[in-house]
Specification:
- InterPro entries: AsnC-type_HTH_dom, Dimeric_a/b-barrel, Tscrpt_reg_AsnC-like, Tscrpt_reg_AsnC/Lrp_C, WH-like_DNA-bd_sf, WH_DNA-bd_sf.
- It comes from Nocardioides silvaticus.
- Pfam families: AsnC_trans_reg (PF01037), HTH_AsnC-type (PF13404).
- GO terms for molecular function: sequence-specific DNA binding.
- The protein is an alpha+beta fold and about 170 residues long.
- The chain has 2 domains: about 55 residues, Orthogonal Bundle (Arc Repressor Mutant, subunit A); about 70 residues, Alpha-Beta Plaits (2-Layer Sandwich), CATH 3.30.70.920.
- The protein has 6 helices and 4 strands, in the order H-H-H-E-H-E-E-H-E-H.
- Strands 2-3-1-4 form a 4-stranded antiparallel β-sheet, with helices on one face.
- A hairpin with a 6-residue loop joins strand 2 and strand 3.
Length: about 170
C-alpha cells in the first residue's frame, strides 16, 4: 500500500501522541474527524498499523543485556525451529536471512548469565547447528520506520506527473 502525506501525518501524530484519540488526531493533523477515523481504519485493515501498545524500554524494565544471535540451522529445520524460538521468552524477534546465517534473533536478558542460558538452550536444539552472538553495547539509532516511509513518499511524489493533484 502506498502511503500519502496524510497517512504519514497520522502515523507521525500517533508516534508523537500515542494516547491521542481520533478527535485529538484530527486537531493535530488539521483534518476532519471522519477523515482521520476512515484513514486509521484503512491503515489498520491493510496491516500498516499493527497495534497501539506501549513502547517498552527493556533496560528500564530490568532486561539489561541485549544481543543479536545468528543461527545456522539444519537443512529443512525452520518449521521445527519456529516453535522452539517462540517458547523462549528471551527471543524478542527472529528473522529468516540470507548469507551464512539462516536466522537472526534479537535477544533480551536480565544478565550475561541469563543470556548464556539462552545461548545454551539454543545450542541444545536439534535444529541448530551453530550460533554466533554479538552483545549490544549501546543504541546508535533506535527502532524507527517513519523516515523510510517519508522517503518513499517523497520519491513517489517526485516521479508523479506534474498534472496530478495531491
Amino acid at each position: 500500500m502506498a502511503l500519502d502525506r496524510l497517512d504519514l501525518a497520522l502515523l507521525t501524530a500517533l508516534r508523537d501522541h500515542p494516547r491521542a484519540g481520533v478527535l485529538e488526531l484530527s486537531r493535530i493533523t488539521k483534518v476532519a474527524r471522519a477523515t482521520v477515523q476512515a484513514r486509521l481504519q484503512r491503515l489498520e485493515t491493510t496491516g500498516v498499523v499493527t497495534g497501539y501498545g506501549p513502547d517498552i524500554d527493556l533496560e528500564a524494565a530490568g532486561q539489561h543485556v541485549s544481543a543479536f544471535v545468528t543461527l545456522e540451522i539444519a537443512q529443512g529445520a525452520l518449521d521445527q525451529l519456529a516453535p522452539e524460538l517462540e517458547a523462549l521468552p528471551t527471543i524478542l524477534e527472529a528473522h529468516v536471512t540470507t548469507g551464512t546465517a539462516d536466522v537472526l534473533c534479537k535477544v533480551g536478558a536480565t544478565s550475561h548469565a541469563d543470556l548464556q542460558e539462552t545461548l545454551l538452550e539454543l545450542n541444545r536444539s536439534p535444529s541448530v547447528v551453530r550460533t554466533t552472538s554479538v552483545v549490544v553495547l549501546g543504541t546508535v539509532v533506535a527502532p524507527r520506520v517513519l523516515p523510510l516511509l517519508e522517503r518513499s513518499a517523497e520519491q513517489r511524489d517526485a516521479r508523479a506527473p506534474a498534472y496530478r493533484t495531491r
